[in-house]
Amino acid sequence: MHGLHRPATHCVHFVRTDTSSQFLEEQVGAARKVGVKFAYWNYLDGGRESATLADPLGAVLGLEHVPYGRHSWVQFLDDLITLAYRYDGLVIVVDRADVLVTEKSDEMFDLMEAFLTQFHHWYDQKKPCHLCFQMVEDERLASFFTREAELRG
Fold first, then answer.
1. 57 vs 7, 74, 131, CA distance in Å?
2. How far is CA 115 from the centre of its chain?
3. Separation CA 107–CA 49 (nearest Å)
4. Residue 67 to residues 41, 78, 82: CA-CA distances in angstroms?
5. SS3 65
6. Which pLDDT value is given to residue 26?
7. Disulfide check for 72: which of 16, 43, 52, 132 has CB 3.0–4.6 Å away?
8. What is the four-CA torsion angle of 1, 4, 6, 72, rounded to 10 degrees?
9. Does the structure show a pLDDT above 70 at 1?
């Protein structure tokens, strides 16, 4: 995860190696300084059980219309567009994406499609917006975002 504090068209990231704690803290710190909202979600926390990834991910993001009904990805997309006018940036981190791509690849691609469809709402306003898939298990990542959430209350 690199350059999360800047708007860029390279906005979908597949992280294959573990990240040093210091680098992660520096990247998140730089992004938070410019008002970027972070949402960390581990696929193993409700992803397997849910009919759609839009519901557990939407809940973590604090989206307005969760749980979604029949057209979950359209509603998820609309809610993400709304965030583009409320926040100065967004970074979504999906942990255990290695398991996600094995178990629910269609849902993963639906998530990427929804994300990329709404992306221009952020980019046109020169706001960073990134979707990061953590492709290898990294306890430091989970621990970092858990600690962050506890500090932010």
1. 22, 14, 12
2. 9
3. 13
4. 16, 13, 16
5. coil
6. 81
7. 52
8. 110
9. no
